[in-house]
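The aim of this short unit is practical: by the end, you should be able to scan a pair of folded records and say something sensible about each. We start with the first protein, listed as its amino acid sequence and then its structure tokens.
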Amino acid sequence: MTPNMIYLDNAATSWPKPECVSEAISQAMIHCGGNPGRGGHKLALAAGELLYEVRDRTAAFFGSEDPFRVSYTQNITMAINMILRGVLHPGDHVLVSPMEHNAVMRPLNAMAINYDILDSEADGKIKTSEIENKIRGNTKLIIICHESNVNGIVQPLREIGQIAHKHNLLLLADCAQSAGHIPLHIEKDNIDFLCFTGHKGLFGPTGTGGVLFGSQVDVEQIQPLICGGTGSLSESFKQPAFLPDRFESGTQNISGLAGLNAGLQWIENQGLENISQHGSKLINDLCQGLQDHPKIQIYSGEGQVLSITIDGLDNGTAASELEDRWGIMTRIGLHCAPLAHRTLGTFPSGTIRFAVSPFTTEEDIQICIDACKTLAEESCAGK
């Protein structure tokens, strides 16, 4: 880590992780080296105990009383695919937010599922009063990106869920960006499928994620994405019907989940509200610091993400300058969310994206403000 490194790419993956995360991963590999559910010796039992602990903590973190309604996957993309391919059938219709990631749009396209995009304001905020106008007789699912990975806009999940359930529809919430800094309660927020990733706001390692099933979801009606060994009912060729085994074939990423467990515990110790307030203040400071410059266009929502463009300056050039001259790491382009950029009017060139974390400081943000203004001034001068 160089002295002037300012990491503002936390919407891609959070960095740095709390020290307890890497320590937990190391300790799990040393002391929990067995395969959970596949043996009665002490290493297998230790792995099983660790798996239950993280499952219980994950469920509680998202407001569920049943740890076995958590199913882990290698990332949120796999979790979303698991639900879409397990729930939807030819002829079904779905509604999507205007800010969806390709983790949703590509599976829908591959499955040839009919969809409509919900009406929104210019910043992508859904007009909830217009949702019912989009519902058809064959509509089965509403899919909502809770917090945009492009501009941080946060959708009103609870209200959308009420509308969905009023019409006997299911609600899938993509919480990739929001989990870890926005409070989520699967039951109170009327969510049926809460999909999450471990490596962003939850501070776990890459290769961790999953889905939490709402208490009213009949999981036996959902076809598993993959089938195979579960350590249970080994005498049968049929996939177990019960949770979590129905959706967890193969050996789980125990060391990775140990890191996720430590990340969740770290958030609990820091206080979710404190994390949320810190990030929101930094994004607001960044927005306030840049908004008066005539050459800087801001695409900002309510979360921990802000996007900009600088008139007359290519996004790639701007990002290279930010890193080379000030050590500021960002992400440019479409951020795997072309639908969101079409909504914002930034397609096809995309934006320069900044995303903060609890480790981002006010000094980091001030350096970023000054750097962006310098680039804008140089662009005006034709440099």
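Turning to the second protein, read its sequence before its tokens, just as you did above.
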Amino acid sequence: MKQAAIFDMDGTLFQTDLILELSLDDTFAYLRKLGAWEGETPIDTYRNIMGVPLPEVWAALLPNHSEKMKELTDSYFLKRLIENIERGKGALYPDVKKVFGYLKENGFVIFIASNGLPDYLEAIIRYYGLDEWVTETCSIQHVDSLNKSDLVKNILEKYKIKNGAVIGDRLSDIYAAKDNGLLSIGCRFDFAKEEELVHADRVINKLTELQLILP
């Protein structure tokens, strides 16, 4: 019987913090040039909400800006993220490919379900050659509800899979597992919060621990 290993991307597979501040600084410098922002880059605010869909990010960071300005900011930020990925400024967490190889050898079908935008996710997959192991990379933009539980549900239905696990660092990942009857594995990595991880079935401190949980 096929089992799914469904991974979050940011803060789970990809060390987003390595390019996050660079890209956000570039974006808010751009806004300052346009006269659309004053003061420091709100990096701490973004870190607190890391993992939510980008429309929610800009609603929090730019609450008084027009929708047009938020869309412009979103487009510029995405461009900077991709450029920094392609310049090698980011990195996967240790042992991602090793763990993917282990899961593949043991009959797991690997997916990525992320709140990131498709072009951003594709840039990571392409740069690090993850297509070798990942069956499909799914963005939250693929579901009208922008709800990760629905995104995971779509994956399970499309591939006719009923068992497996969702691996991620935020509450949306944990709920996506529970709402679909899967094992929830929380990652105590850069953006994780202890008050969210307590809801996970299991918690790991490094990806290689999956080899003990998903035999």
